[in-house]
Amino acid sequence: MISILHIITQRLSRTMAFALPHLLCFLVFLQQLPIFTTAQNISLGTSLTAKPGNSSFWASPSGEFAFGFQEIGNHGFLLAIWFNKIAERTIVWSANGNSLVQKGSRVQLTSEGKIMLNDAASGKQTLIADSTANEVAYAAMLDTGNFVLANKNSANLWQSFDHPTNTILPTQTLYQGTTLFAPYTASNYSKGRFMFTLEAGGNLLLYTTHFPLDTANAAYWSSETEGTGFQVVFNQSGSIFLTSRNGSILTVVVNNTVPLPGFYRRTTIDYDGVLRYYIYPKSSNSSEGVWQMAWSTLSFIPSNICVNISYYKGGGACGFNSLCRNDQKPSCQCPNGYVFVDPDDVMRGCKQNFRPQSCDEVPSMEEFYFEEMQNTDWKESEYEKYTPVTEDWCRQACLADCFCALANFRNGDCWLKGMPLRNGRIDPSSGVKALIKIRRDNSTLKLPHSPHSRTKRNSTLLLVGSVLLSSSGFLNFLLVLITYLVVSGTYRRRPNMIQPYTVLPGMNLICFSYEELNKATIGFKEELGRGAFGTVFRGVLVSEKCVAVKRLNNMVKESELEFKAELSAIGRTNHRNLVQLLGFCNEGQHRILVYEFMSNGSLASFLFGKSRPNWYRRKEIALGTARGLLYLHEECSNQIIHCDIKPQNILLDDSFTARISDFGLAKLLKTDQTRTTTGIRGTKGYVAPEWFKNMPITTKVDVYSYGILLLEIIFCRKYFEAEAENEQQMILADWAYDCYAEKKLQLLLENDDEAMHDIDKMEKYVMIALWCIQEDPSLRPTAKKLALMLEGTLQVSVPPDPSSFTSSIV
Questions:
Q1: What SS3 state is found at 635?
Q2: Example GO molecular function term (predicted)?
Q3: Handedness of CA 768, 769, 774, 780 (dihedral sign)
Q4: Residues facing 183 on adjacent strands
Q5: C-alpha dihedral, 697 to 703 to 705 to 708, nearest 10°
Q6: I want to staple 585 with a disulfide (CB 3.0 to 4.6 A). Which of 70, 592, 650, 710 is the partner?
Q7: 173: number of Cβ within 10 Å
C-alpha cells in the first residue's frame, strides 16, 4: 500500500494540470486510507527500565521510531517517542516533561492494558495511557511515529497521535480542542510560554500563555476560520491544511514542495514560539540530491514573531525588559545597561545592571546618560506621550521622571516608558529611536541619607568629642551634660512613633480607626466629591502619604465578617487600571474606605472642562478603562460587576492613566440605593435596558455603560445635553448612530482637528461603542473582545441599529 501511495504521489507531483485545491482534496482522500505496517507487538506485562545510554526502548518495525526513556542531561529521564535512525534523536512526543524520573524508574504495560510510569526516586506512579474499553491486547510503536494500545482485532483503543505535545507528524490529524505546547527551553520539555491550538470554535491559533499557567494569553497568529475550522491534516505527501467539516480546504498551513520518500518530516512549535516545518534526509545521497545531515527548516509561522507579539500583558517574545531581533530566527538580547535575569534561560527577560533612579533624588546628566538604539521599541509600555517636541526635550522629560526607564522618539513624538518594559523588538521598519536611561557609575554614587545614617553620624561625632575632651574631669562632666542635651533634644524633635497599622490576615488591607481617619482628614474637611456610594475627602496619613477617604452611606446591615469578606475581594484586586484600595474603617456606625489619591481628578472634569483633551490621550483612557473592566470581569479571583461605569468613576493618576474606582461596592449598598429607580443600580443615562425589564444582570450591564462612556470620550460631550441646537442632538447615542449611518461623523467633531485627522480610527471606536449599547445583551461584546477590538487585534464588524437609547434617560 505504501508503494502504491508513493507512485500516485510521484505522478501527481509531475502533473501540472491539477490545481492545488484539487490536489490537496485528493490527498485528503488518500490520508483516510489504511496504512498497513507490521507492528512488533508489546505484550501485556512488559516493562522498560530507565538507564544511561538511551538503550531502553521499544522500536517500530523499521526502527525509524522508538518509545522509551531518553536521558536529559543530568536532570533525569524523559518517557518519549523519538526519531531513532538519525544521529539527532529528535523527540516528537513526551509523557512527563514537567516531572522527569530518575535512573531505575520503569514504564510498564500492565496486565490491565494501562501504561504506568513508576519513579524509582519517589515511588510515585503515574498513569500515562489507558483505554476505557478494557480490551487492550497489546501495545505497538508504529512506523508513523504513533504509539498505540490495540485490541485483539488490531483496532486502536488509545494512540499518542491524539495526545500531541509539541510536534505533529505525517498522517497525524489535529481535532478541535487539541493543543500543542512549546517546550520551556530547547532541553527542557515542560510546558513553556507558547501554544498552538485548534479551538472548539474552529480557529487555528498561536498564543502566548499566562506562564507558568498553561492558559491562553494573547494570539499572535490566526487562521481566521472561527465557526468553520474542523481539523488539521498533516497528509502523507507532507502538506498541512485546515479543513471544514465537509472536507473542503480552508487554509493551507504548509504546501508540500519536496517529495516524501527521501526525508523525515515534522512540524514543531519550538520553545521560541515559532511553528516550524522541518525535513531531514534519510540518507546523504538521496535521489533528491545531497543534503546536509541535519534538520532543515522549510517554512515557519509567523514570519517575524518579534513584531507579531504586541500585547499589554506578558513579556512578549523574549521576556520583560528584553529585545527580540529577527535574524533568520528570533534571538533575545538585553539593551545596554541591562543583563539577563537567567543567562541559561534568556526568555526570562532582563534586569537593570545599575541602581534605578529614586524618586527622592534630583537627577542630572552627570549621574545619568541616554544610550541610543535605532529602530528599537517596546510596545504597550508607554504611560505618557508628548507631541510635538524635540529629542532633547524628550530626554529631559525622561530624566526628570523617576518612573521613566527609557523614552522612544520619532518625528516629534515622545513616548515615556516604565518598568517592566514589554514586547521589546528591533525592527528596521519602525524608525523609532530608543533613549535608554542608564546611571553612569553605580559604585561611586552616594545613597540618600537615611535617619539611621544620621544617627550613626551623630554617634561618631560624640565619640570623637569624648576623646578630645577626656583630658579633664570637668570637661568630661561637660561632655556628659552636652551629650544628654543633644540626645534628649533629638528625641524631642522626633515625632511620636506611631504603632504600625493593623493589617488583616490574608487581606493586605490596613484597618484604620475612626480617630486616625478623622485626624488624617482634619475632621473630614476637604471634600473631593460626592457620589451614589458616599462622600470623598482628601486625607494625609502620618506617613505623609496623600489618600482619598470615602465615607460610605446607606450600608447594608450585615455582620462585620461579611463586610470584611466583601472588602477582601476588593482588596485582592491589583491592576494598573484600577484605583487601589489601601484600607478601611469598620467602627460602630462608621464604614469608611481609604484609596490611593488620584492627582488628576475624574474623567468627567477632564472631558467636560474648558479645553478639549488631545485625541491620543482620550484613546489611551478608553483602552485603559476597557482593560480595567476585563480584569474585573474575567481575571481577578472573584468576578466583579461594577454597576456604575461613568466618567465620575474613572479617575486619572499622575500620568493620566485611567483608573476605575468604586468597583465592588454594589454589594455593600442597600438594594434600594440608587439615583434612578428603585431596585436599579447605576446612574441615569448609563443604565443598561435589562435593569428595567427584570432580566438577569450580568457583566454586560457594565459593557453597556462603557459604550455610553466611550461615546463621551470620543466626542468630549455628555450623554445628554438639554441645550443642544435641536432635539435630534440631545441624546448623544442617538445622534452618534444617525451620523454614523449617514457617514457624517465629522458633524460631531467640531473644532477637533486631531480626531478629524484620525477619522478612520475614530469611526472604528464609534462602531465599538454602538456594539456595546445594543439593547440585546447577547449582542454586546465581552470585556475581552472589547479590549481586543480597541487594540486592533480583532476586527470590528458593522453594528446594527441599537434600537432605542431613551429608556434609561427619561
A1: helix
A2: carbohydrate binding
A3: positive
A4: 191
A5: -150
A6: 592
A7: 16
Is CATH 1.10.510.10 correct for 606-810?
A: yes
Asked if 346 contacts 318 with a C-beta cutoff of 8 angstroms, the reply is: yes
Q: Decide: 200 and 303 in contact? Cβ < 8 Å.
A: no
- Average pLDDT on 743-758 reads 78
DSSP H or E run through 608: none
Cell of 576: 494598573
**What residues does each domain of the chain span?**
308-442, 502-597, 606-810
pLDDT of 481 above 90 = no
Average pLDDT, integer, range 706-718: 92
- Please give the pLDDT value at position 77: 94
Domains 308-442 and 606-810 belong to one CATH topology = no
Amino acid type, 388: P
Query: In the structure grid, which three cell numbers stand for residue 766, read together?
Result: 464609534
Q: Which of 41-45, 488-492, 798-802 has the lowest mean pLDDT?
A: 488-492
**CATH code that applies to domain 502-597:** 3.30.200.20
**550 marked as binding residue:** yes
745: enclosing H helix or E strand: none
The mean-pLDDT minimum among 105-114, 167-176, 248-257 falls in 248-257
What is the overall mean pLDDT for the chain?
A: 81
Q: CA–CA separation, 702 vs 715, rounded Å? A: 20
The secondary structure of 561-593, three-state, reads HHHHHHHHHHHCCCCCCECCEEEEEEECCEEEE
Q: How far is the C-alpha of 438 from the C-alpha of 150, rounded, in Å? A: 63
Greatest alpha-carbon pair distance for the chain in Å reads 117
Contact 649, 661 (CB under 8 A): yes
Q: Is the pTM of this model over 0.85?
A: no
CATH topology for 308-442 is Hepatocyte Growth Factor (3.50.4)
d(CA 168, CA 177): 15
Distance CA 688, CA 700 (A): 8
Residue scoring higher pLDDT (523 or 14): 523
| Cα 750 from Cα 115, distance rounded (Å) | 72
For helices 783-791 and 700-715, the axis angle rounded to 10 degrees is 30
Q: Is the pLDDT of residue 445 over 80?
A: no
Q: In which band, very low, low, confident or very high, does the pLDDT at 486 lie, cut at 50, 70 and 90?
A: very low
| Amino acid at position 118, single letter | N
b/e per residue 671-695 (b: at least 16 CB within 10 A)? eebbebeeebbbbbbbbbbbbeeee
Is residue 263 within 8 A of residue 280, CB to CB? The reply is yes
471 burial class (0-12, 13-18, 19+ CB within 10 angstroms)?
exposed
Residue 453: the pLDDT is: 39
Distance CA 632, CA 198 (A): 28
Q: Which helix (H) or strand (E) holds 71?
A: strand 65-72
For residue 28, pLDDT over 60 is answered with: no
Q: Is the pLDDT of residue 724 over 90?
A: no
Q: Is 167's pLDDT higher than 60?
A: yes
3-class secondary-structure state, position 430: coil
Residue 218 confidence class, pLDDT cut points 50, 70, 90: very high
Asked if 408 contacts 431 with a C-beta cutoff of 8 angstroms, the reply is no
In whole angstroms, give the CA distance from residue 76 to residue 55. 15
Q: DSSP assignment of 263-318, as one string?
A: EEEEEEE-TTS-EEEEEEESSTTBTTB---SS-EEEEEESS-HHHH---SSS-TTT
Which residues participate in catalysis according to the annotation?
644
* Cα–Cα distance, 25 to 244 (Å, whole number): 12
The three cell numbers of residue 180 are 500543542
DSSP states of 434-498 = EEEEEES-GGGPPPPP-HHHHHHHHHHHHHHHHHHHTT-HHHHHHHHHHHHHHHHHHHHHSPPPP
pLDDT at residue 303 above 60? yes
